[in-house]
Automatic annotation (TrEMBL):
This is Rod shape-determining protein MreD. Belongs to the MreD family. One of its GO terms (cellular component) is plasma membrane. The chain crosses the membrane at residues 6-24, 36-56, 76-94, 106-128, 140-162. InterPro entries: Cell_shape_determining_MreD. NCBIfam families: shape_MreD.
């Protein structure tokens, strides 16, 4: 039980560092969002509460990499909580709504990862727009497609690492 949580924490740290690196970057703003893939995986496999909490803490990790901006009044503004709220919402919705719909095959994983990545990006964009300003360089489609392309490989790798069996899912 404790070892499982340690591995989940290590997977989230690895996703955080991969999100900050330029290893998988294509072009100027096209890079995958590994953290949402981790949240989607565990929300599917472990349920709504795992999705909620991993989304919250994974979003906080993602928000820490944003840094701060100096505003017009020379104060530094930090955008902590945007990804945290959107990832937590998406993780909870996945765990509650798609409980019986998830099947582990390439096509379904691709569709789910693309759709839920797009949903999390839309929620994050609207939160950013409501509290700060409109970010015109924020990518919805390209990140969703990139995540959909690499999502099945990450799902199968995480399934192998965590050795999750059908009877372990959603306990």
């Amino acid at each position: 039980m404790i070892l499982d949580k340690v591995f989940i924490f290590l997977a989230m740290l690895l996703a955080h560092f991969l999100n900050g690196s330029n290893i998988f970057e294509l072009g100027n703003a096209i890079r995958p969002d590994f953290m949402i893939i981790i949240v989607i995986f565990f929300a599917f496999r472990k349920g709504a509460m795992y999705g909620l909490w991993l989304g919250f803490f994974g979003g906080l990790l993602t928000d820490t990499s944003l840094g701060g901006e100096i505003g017009a009044d020379n104060a530094v503004y930090y955008k902590i909580g945007l990804h945290s709220l959107s990832y937590a919402i998406v993780g909870y919705v996945i765990g509650k709504v798609t409980r019986n719909a998830y099947t582990e095959n390439y096509i379904s994983i691709t569709i789910y990862v693309m759709g839920f990545t797009f949903l999390s990006r839309v929620i994050t964009y609207f939160l950013f727009w409501m509290f700060f300003y409109s970010n015109h360089s924020y990518s919805f489609v390209y990140v969703s497609l990139y995540n959909a392309f690499i999502g099945p490989a990450i799902f199968f790798l995480l399934t192998w690492i965590f050795r999750l069996e059908a009877d372990e899912v959603r306990q």
